[in-house]
């Protein structure tokens, strides 16, 4: 019985977070309401408040959950040593989440563009050290002459910018694609193109 209740709570929390991503992306933090989120999650508003006491708490949870998802995307930096495999795997994971979690990417972008008023401390505590570890790995490849010399931080920025573009500017991409989102074949070509451009830029073949 307890296990079933735990699963229900997990599912409800996940539904609320995904609904919140959509509402915050479409209406912004100021325009979103707990009622809007409850309606989209198909749960009573009281249930939303049970899991998240305030809108700010829910907003923060959305952002931190996204950060954890993106950290998981980068586990390849620890699992593999070959720069071509690491970066190809990372780019593909980032592209896939830009497609499946486009609303979340937009919420993240909006927060950071406003100098992270809600998440400032969390970013300094979590993102900074995490990024420095990835930069150190890239620097090792450069020193071993496994990739061409580049500034590690800018390589990461380029990957983030090019992959998250497909989420943050999905409307523009659809507009330029005859008012249709990219289908599976087009999206796979996009993944391959982004991967090829970045790898070739540091002296690797895709």
Automatic annotation (TrEMBL):
Keyword field: DNA-binding
Lineage: Bacteria, Pseudomonadati, Pseudomonadota, Gammaproteobacteria, Oceanospirillales
Protein name listed in UniProt: TetR family transcriptional regulator
Pfam families attached to this UniProt entry: TetR_C_3, TetR_N
Keyword match Metal-binding: no
HTH tetR-type domain residues: 10-70
PROSITE patterns: HTH_TETR_2 (PS50977)
An MF annotation (GO) of this entry: transcription cis-regulatory region binding
Entries under InterPro entries matching the protein: Homeodomain-like_sf, HTH-type_TetR-like_transc_reg, HTH_TetR, Tet_transcr_reg_TetR-rel_C_sf, Tscrpt_reg_YcdC_C
One of the GO BP terms on file: negative regulation of DNA-templated transcription
